[in-house]
Amino acid sequence: MSRAHVAVLDEELPFPLTSGKRIRTFNLLSRLAAEHRITILTHRQADPAEQEPAERAMAETGIAVRVVDRVVPPKSGLGFYARLFANLFSPLPYSVATHASPAMGAAIRELAKQDAPDLWHAEWTPYARLLARRPEPWVVMAHNVESLIWQRSSEVETHPVKKWVLREQWRKFEHFETWAYGRATRSIAVSAEDARLMAERFGTPDADVVDNGVDTRRFQPVEARDRDPFRVLFLGSLDWRPNLDGVRWMLEKIWPAVREQESRAVFQVVGRKPPKDLQTLIARTPGAELHADVPDVRPFLEQAGMMAVPLRIGGGSRLKILEALATALPVVTTRVGVEGLRLRHQEHLTIADEPVDFADAILDVTAYHQLACRMAQRGRMTVEREYDWDTLADRLSRIWRECAAGETPPAFAGQTASVAG
Fold first, then answer.
1. Angle between helices 146-156 and 160-183 (to 10 degrees)
2. Based on the domain organization, do 253 and 353 belong to the same domain?
3. Residues 330, 241 within the same domain
4. Does 420 map to a domain?
5. Angle at 32 between CA 28 and CA 37, to 5 degrees
6. How far, rounded to the nearest angstrom, does the alpha carbon of residue 42 sit from its chain's CA centroid?
7. How far apart are the first and last CA of the chain?
8. Which residues contact 74 (CB under 8 A, 6 or more apart)?
9. Disulfide: which of 50, 85, 181, 316 matches 187 by Cβ 3.0-4.6 Å?
């Protein structure tokens, strides 16, 4: 099958490009729309001002849009805690229960009757639940192994009640992912490490890999002399728990040691939707700045002296590191931060896991900035060679064609009734 009709299910339209997930989804789908007929089904944007520009961006790429008249409930306020409490009595993880809505299910059935797709594509693991009883082939895109994120979140949490809630979500997601990856026609990971984890933890030995990527034409290298070696950049969505944990860890455990040794150092936190408590923490931290909901991150990447990726929680791989190295910006990260990327310590970037080591690594980049920039240049060459969106889109296109022409595997015994509802 050369040109397939593919229906993509997701939480929102992937525009504007203000998060790693949106960047990945938009770059792949916009390229694949030249080869396949794509219909994207989503809930409404949480920010109503984004809706019209997002729909226009999809139309410009040739992607048909069907929007379910529902906004995914926010993770804040009394309503959130009520939903979280109710979820204690559900076998489904919280994000599956809130995202896989009856309204989206009805939209799927309507599309199947009016213009049946050759293939369904769940662009985030929770949306696999809506495809449990579809007779057509379907794939699931695992942006992260979700249970790994919940596991790591529970391991760093110190509050006993919060720790218990996180462990419950971890347990539920392990059950759900076992079903989803076993039931899908094909499961797609964003790194070889995630694919191996899916094989070991969920018995999915043949997961495909479509890495995260970067537009190397949009993110161009910057000369070291044009950078401020004392400007340390963090870039990422600030409504995502792993990023919040990383920024707080940086501000509380790492940054004081950096400022003690180098008073000229400035920590720039750039990201969307920062919560109030993070805004307060940044405001009272010497040398820290918050730049929220910026329209374009490139000016920050071009002026910074380095990027800090102090992640302790995570899965998948970090687009922010690829974007930094595409501009030849030095990177200091943890092993979790660089996980899933074919990049090496002291060849492409610097890896440090303990607060004192991370602070020392930042200070080394300020002191030996030309050397760090040469290392980042090697990173740029690797990114150009291995993480170009065009190559990655070709890989996903091949998977779609193969699935659309194949057969759906039998249901994952013993899981559909309890997980799919």
1. 170
2. yes
3. yes
4. no
5. 135
6. 17
7. 33
8. 46, 80
9. 181
Do 41 and 53 belong to one domain? yes
Section 321-345 average pLDDT:
96
pLDDT of residue 411: 41
**Exposure string for 376-410, b = 16+ CB within 10 A, e = fewer:** bebbbebbeeebbbeebbeebbebbbbbbeeeeee
Q: Which of 247, 291, 273 lies closest to 45, judged by CA?
A: 273
Give the range of the structural domain holding residue 168, as residue numbers without chain letter: 5-213+388-414
Residues 197 and 316 in one domain: no
- For the question of whether the overall pTM of this predicted structure is more than 0.90, the answer is no
Mean pLDDT of 219-232: 96
| The pair of three-digit structure tokens given for residue 276, joined into one six-digit string | 């109030």
Report the domain count for the chain: 2
Q: What is the CATH number of the domain that holds 410?
A: 3.40.50.2000
**Residue 380 and residue 360: Cα distance in Å, rounded?**
24
Two tokens, residue 106: 């009805």
Domain-embedded: residue 89: yes
Closest CA to 247 of 210, 214, 277: 277
Quickly state the pLDDT bin for 1 (edges 50, 70, 90). Answer: low
Question: How many Cβ atoms from other residues are within 10 Å of residue 109's Cβ?
Answer: 11
3-class secondary structure, 63: coil
Are 72 and 198 contained in the same domain? yes
Among 20, 1, 24, 21, which residue's Cα sits nearest to residue 11? 21
Average pLDDT over residues 285-292: 98
Strand order in the sheet with 208-209: 64-71, 37-44, 5-10, 119-122, 138-142, 186-189, 208-209
- Confidence category of residue 2, pLDDT binned at 50, 70, 90: confident
| Span 384-412, average pLDDT | 83
Q: What is the pLDDT of residues 90-138, one digit of tens each?
A: 999 999 999 989 999 999 999 999 999 999 999 999 999 999 999 999 9
